[in-house]
């Protein structure tokens, strides 16, 4: 792929994205393809590689109808999409620390001595981290994985829309999750747009950037 083609693909994936409110309800995404999209999303950067993100893929009609009652101002996106991905953070994600670092050694990504050194430093850090600080760290990772999910979905030819308007205090329990452990970040609807999304004004780079 030449530089021009890469540039055009990047512009199509990023600059061309618009807020989608209506999807083609006949388009379904297979679990195999959705798994590929999620796998691509989880390559996003993560602080100390702790990967706190967790996903609930709401694809059944029953699941979407339940979600629609919790996202009353976004019912159209929920009900017409192929699926809605609810992004949560696992506040007990440190439980996976040994598995993450152990697998890194097993796969040859990290020497054993580096693993031992990392765990010696990271375990007490996480054990003593206030819940509010841990949530701040996890929110950054969840934001990164969410944006990457949307970009990966676009590369597969699908449209997405992030949704922040829903009953955050009810969604975990509605989908059988421990609401104290699994805290909601956003919903991401995904499918094929039935109607072109509307554009939005963005502040110019000169307004949001300072050069030093």
Automatic annotation (TrEMBL):
Domain Nitroreductase, by residue range, is: 16-192
> Which Pfam families does its entry note?
Nitroreductase
Among the GO molecular function terms of this UniProt record, one is: oxidoreductase activity
Q: Which UniProt keywords apply?
A: Oxidoreductase
What start-end ranges are recorded for coiled-coil regions in this protein?
none
Concerning its family, UniProt says: Belongs to the nitroreductase family.
The name this protein carries in UniProt is: NAD(P)H nitroreductase
- In its UniProt entry, the species of origin is given as Brevibacillus formosus
Query: Gene name, please?
Result: ydgI_2
